[in-house]
C-alpha cells in the first residue's frame, strides 16, 4: 500500500461493520509466551513496542496509545517481532503504529473494548475466536483467494467461524515428544516403551523424573488431552459439516475414560505428577532431571540455552489404542470491529502480514512452523526441527474455538489432576467433570 493510498484511506475510511454474535478467556496454555516484558517507545521510530523484559510498564493493563494511527497489542514474546514489522509498515506507508505489550491480551482487550479504548489489532490464538465473534468485538477479514491458497489448509480452516474468516494466521503449533539423546538414544514408539526406558534412566540415578508434562495441582487439559485422543477420546463431537458441537460432550465417553484410566496408571507410577507445572516443566528437562518432555516449539530456546542434546519426535501410541495426538493450534492477528482506522488495520493484516518476508520474520515468535507454505519451506531448510513439529501434528484436530470451550478447561484439567494424584477414581471423576461442564455450558447459553 503506497503512502498516497493510505492517506486516501484515512480521509475516506468508514469503520467496518459486522453482524456477529460473541467472546472470553480460556485457561488454555496453547500459546506459551514470556509475558514479563514491557513496552518502550523510540523517539524517532513510528512503531513502539517491547524492548526489554522485566520493566513491566503498563504490561498488565495497557492503555491505548492515543497518538497512533494503528495500535497493536501483543504478549511479551510476540511484541518485539511485531514491532519490527510494524515499523517497516509505518515507514513505508507514512503512518504511526504503536505496539503495546499485555500480559493478558485477551482479557485486557475485552475490558478495553467495552470501554471504547481497544487497540485496532491483537495477536492471539485461534481458540479465542468463538468468544470474540460472539461478543462482536472482532471484524471479518478478507484474505484474497489467491493468497489464502498459499497457506496451510488447517491454518486457513482455523480462521473461520460460521464459514467467515476472522483472523490472519502466521503460525501453526502443536506439542510433540522431546527427548534427551544423551539419556535415551531412540524415540519410543509406545507409551510403555517411554515409561520403561525413562524409568531405567531414573533407576540409574541419571534423572529424577521419567517425563516432564505440565499438569500442576489444578490440572492442565491442554497438556493432558493426548492421553485421551490416543484412544479416540476428546472433548466435543462434531456436526455434519465438521464444526464442533457443544451438545456432544465427550469427556466421559468410553474412549475418554480409557485415557483417564491411563492417566491414573501413570500417576501411580509417578510418570505424571501434579508437582510439575508451568513454573518448572521446562526446567526439569533443561536441568537434565527428565529424559523426556511433552511440549511445543516454544520450549526449545530454553533447551538450546542449556546446551541439551535433544530430538523432536511424534507422540507415542498407547496400548489398546493408537497414536496420541495433541491439539493443533494456530496463532493469528485479529482486527477489532471498532478499529480507529479499519482500512489501515485490514491492510496491515491481510496484505502486509501475508507476505513471505513477514511470515518468515514471525517465525521468531516461539519458533512455530509458519502458516504460509512458502515461508515454511524456507524455514525448514535451516531449521529441520520445524518439519518434525509438523510431522508430530499430523492427524491432530484443531483446538475447539467455540465459546463452550471456556467451560471445559477448568473442570477437565482439575479432573486430570485429581486422577493423577490419586484423589479420585478416573471413571467417577470424569463423569463428575462431564456433569459440571454440561451445567456450565447450559448456564452460559
From TrEMBL:
<comment type="similarity">
    <text>Belongs to the bacterial solute-binding protein 1 family.</text>
</comment>
<feature type="region of interest" description="Disordered">
    <location>
        <begin position="20"/>
        <end position="61"/>
    </location>
</feature>
<dbReference type="GO" id="GO:0015144">
    <property type="term" value="F:carbohydrate transmembrane transporter activity"/>
</dbReference>
<dbReference type="InterPro" id="IPR006060">
    <property type="entry name" value="Maltose/Cyclodextrin-bd"/>
</dbReference>
<protein>
    <submittedName>
        <fullName>ABC transporter substrate-binding protein</fullName>
    </submittedName>
</protein>
<dbReference type="InterPro" id="IPR006059">
    <property type="entry name" value="SBP"/>
</dbReference>
<dbReference type="GO" id="GO:1901982">
    <property type="term" value="F:maltose binding"/>
</dbReference>
<feature type="signal peptide">
    <location>
        <begin position="1"/>
        <end position="20"/>
    </location>
</feature>
<dbReference type="GO" id="GO:0042956">
    <property type="term" value="P:maltodextrin transmembrane transport"/>
</dbReference>
<feature type="compositionally biased region" description="Low complexity">
    <location>
        <begin position="26"/>
        <end position="56"/>
    </location>
</feature>
<keyword id="KW-0813">Transport</keyword>
<dbReference type="GO" id="GO:0055052">
    <property type="term" value="C:ATP-binding cassette (ABC) transporter complex, substrate-binding subunit-containing"/>
</dbReference>
<dbReference type="Pfam" id="PF13416">
    <property type="entry name" value="SBP_bac_8"/>
</dbReference>
<keyword id="KW-0732">Signal</keyword>
<dbReference type="GO" id="GO:0015768">
    <property type="term" value="P:maltose transport"/>
</dbReference>
<keyword id="KW-0762">Sugar transport</keyword>
